[in-house]
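Moderator note: this is an archived Q&A kept for reference. The question asked for a predicted structure of one protein chain; the sequence and the answer are reproduced below.
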Amino acid sequence: MWKLALVLAAIGGALIAMPASPERVVKRFARAEGMSGAILVTGRGDDDDDAPRIVAFGTGAGGRPLTPETVLPLASLSKPVTAAVVLRLVRSGRLSIDDRLADLVPEVAGAGDARYREITVRHLLTHTAGLRWMPSPAGLFGPDVHCRDAALALVDDPLLAPPGEVQAYSNLGYCWLGIVIERVAGQRYEEEAADAGFDLAMTSPALWAAGGWSGRASAIFEALGGEIPPEALSRPLGAFGESYYGLGWHVAEGYLWHHGVFVGTSFAVAVRMPDGRNAVALFAGSPGNPRQDASVLAGKLAASLRRRGWLGR
């Protein structure tokens, strides 16, 4: 009898130690942070024949129930979309990741800070260009100023550091990437993203390529999936610590992640695993400490996805 008790105790301990399912992780997080609802998408981002699983619960704006068809903003989750469009241009041979910004956008050649001419596409993707953060162009120029115009207007601002020396998150860098895409592709950024197969809507032009996309949960999941190029995992010069920002994604131990937030209204976290299992969680409302809370939530979702066979079921 005592042997059976030991076996049962061991099994119980193992079950307790198992990570919760992604759905439970998201529901616990939403409840703890006082958010009214969420949509979770899980599945294989590298398998077009395997439809993702979508779970929606609670309410969104105006108390309306959230459904798989609800359109929600990506905020800074737009950055991996922009990075994917850039890397598509690189794969097609139209762009090199080490091309200089000044060679692609002639306006930069006359920048007040000569170091601008050293900035490359890689620097912009990895937040190592030495640019200011710029929460939103609206805070500097007013609500109707486009991200593209803000970048060009700030070209005479001094850099915070020489390109390649310090990793500092910058919306402004992704505004420049939107401009690069347009100059190389010969069409609007939104059109090039559509050509890449992204079924998203540009709803915040002020943040544009840095944070302007919105979409249905399934479209967001598809946009953030696909192949992870090996160079996306490379640690850039100027990046320190265990985790760092690669080509459009935060790189942690064993997974990629990113988040986006419009404080008070929306919050989103995406996780990508090396084996192709991905999760995207979209919330109505936002947590108290978005950057820190996103990192913790991403880690919990990654731990859950590592458990074979979960995929949200």
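Archived answer notes: Confidence is low (pLDDT under 50) at residues 1-16, 309-313.
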